[in-house]
Amino acid sequence: MNLSMETRENILVVKLKGELDHHSAESTRKKIDKAIIEKGSKNIILDLKELSFMDSSGIGLIMGRYKNISQKDGKLFVISGNQYVDRILKMSGLLKIIEAYPEMDTALKNI
């Protein structure tokens, strides 16, 4: 799992690449949570376009970050465009509560 983060106007942008599974979810969660605290970000965009695999641990990671950021009156958005990840997001019901966009620019305009 490769993880990169940047901040754009109080928005934490997290790009995930590779496999988000039970082997990588915990360390990824800790890094994201640390960045939220250090940067004081109110909103998060998770870019999932380059994920090759995601299991229930990945769904849990997304839900946990959604819950945490919502308690701070923030929002969490996902960038997908990956058919595999889109299917998992739909099947899990995450798209009923989290906004998803195909491109980063679209998400940034809607925050």
From TrEMBL:
One Pfam family cited in the UniProt record for this chain: STAS
InterPro entries per UniProt: Anti-sigma_ant (IPR003658), Anti-sigma_F_ant (IPR014237), STAS_dom (IPR002645), STAS_dom_sf (IPR036513)
This protein's UniProt keywords: Phosphoprotein, Sporulation
Superkingdom of this protein's organism: Bacteria
Domain STAS: 1-111
Molecular function terms from GO: anti-sigma factor antagonist activity; antisigma factor binding
GO BP term, pick one: sporulation resulting in formation of a cellular spore
Recorded coiled-coil stretches: none
NCBIfam families tied to this protein: ant_ant_sig (TIGR00377), spore_II_AA (TIGR02886)
Purpose: In the phosphorylated form it could act as an anti-anti-sigma factor that counteracts SpoIIAB and thus releases sigma f from inhibition.
Family the entry assigns: Belongs to the anti-sigma-factor antagonist family.
Protein name as it appears in the record: Anti-sigma F factor antagonist
UniProt organism field: Tissierella creatinophila DSM 6911
Gene behind this protein: spoIIAA
